[in-house]
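Minutes, project huddle
Topic: does the predicted pose make sense with flavin mononucleotide bound?
PN asked that the exact inputs be recorded in the minutes so nobody has to dig through chat later. Recorded below.
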Amino acid sequence: MDPRLNLDDWEHEALEALDPMVAGYYVGGSRDEETLRGNRRAWSRWWLRHRVLTDVSHTDPGLELLGTRLSSPILAAPTAFHGLAHPGAEAETARGIAAAGGAMCLSTLSNTAVEEVVAAAAPAPVLFQLYVYRDRGATEAIVARARAAGCRALVVTVDAAVLGTRERDVRSGFHLPPTLSLPNAAPGAGSVPAATGASGLAAYVSEQLDPTLSWDDLGWLLQLTDLPVYAKGVVRGDDAARAASLGVAGVVVSNHGGRQLDGSIPTAFALPEVVEATDGRCPVWVDGGIRRGTDVVKALALGAQAVLIGRPVLWGLSVAGAGGVQAICSSLTAELAEAMALCGAPALDRLTPDLVRLAEPGL
Ligand SMILES: Cc1cc2nc3c(=O)[nH]c(=O)nc-3n(C[C@H](O)[C@H](O)[C@H](O)COP(=O)(O)O)c2cc1C
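Predicted holo structure (tokens), as shared on screen:
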């Protein structure tokens, strides 16, 4: 029997093996980590109202997304610095995602060139997560390069104009070793060097990324590229509606895995408002604390088209490289298929709002 029965088993194994500075960077959240914990708890506040006596002999969690048939609606969220987890870095992740029949969103702050990641992932689709640099010319060049490399979409992160303080990283003096570079970031922006008594990432973000980012810039980005653009980091209906009016391809309900504004609403509670406000004008995706197939069922029943998982991919990569990434994706997809069958929902379009109900206070 594989001793790893669930995503938490992978997490425990990874945290034991990783260097403490890296483990703290991957696992942590900002400030008191209330949102980090809240994300997970919030999914369990929704209860399932399963249907009975439906034929679930064939349960299919697959779907068409980004012009490709995917094995499940679970995508790999953009996470920085895979070189800290495995020498094969993001190319290794891409191979694991492809083997699982999934799709991957590559961070601007990755340690592998986008062209290499797209080649390693093929035929699995790669989306490119964009951070907007103060240097707009460099940002335009990053977008053009991602498109030329064959990325299928841009995912612009809108919740990180300034970096939320992750106290674990301040304490550890988080930095990248000199062997790891950022080949997709703005040229000349440098790396994430050691800083005494501070997080090297915090220094990088405040020097390089643009804190003036505003709605006009989202309009600018939409003009700049013919790639579909998703806005990641939205938790309010009014913001989601505005993004939809500007013409985004989709909205990602996210609080950056509890790493930006601590106290930000857990995504399982923000999702219904965003779904209502976008009103079918664009798809809604969600991430944050999704660790069980039942969490995915709840997200889709609440109106999400797809979900993203961040940390679990890093646990798989740290423990077993591409095979580990494939294993965590496949195990969550298997949990999803089981949960769909037990809910009486043999296909994703049967995951409807009547399946979920928010717990009464105290339950
Ligand atoms: C180690 C780490 C690095 C991350 N790096 C990025 C990033 O570069 N860009 C981004 O938009 N989000 C980043 N995120 C946030 C993820 O995309 C995602 O929103 C979050 O991890 C989802 O929550 P989960 O880890 O609970 O699944 C990062 C998250 C983690 C844990």
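Observations noted during the meeting:
- The radius of gyration is 19 Å.
- The first strand starts at residue 46 and ends at 48.
No decisions taken; revisit at the next huddle.
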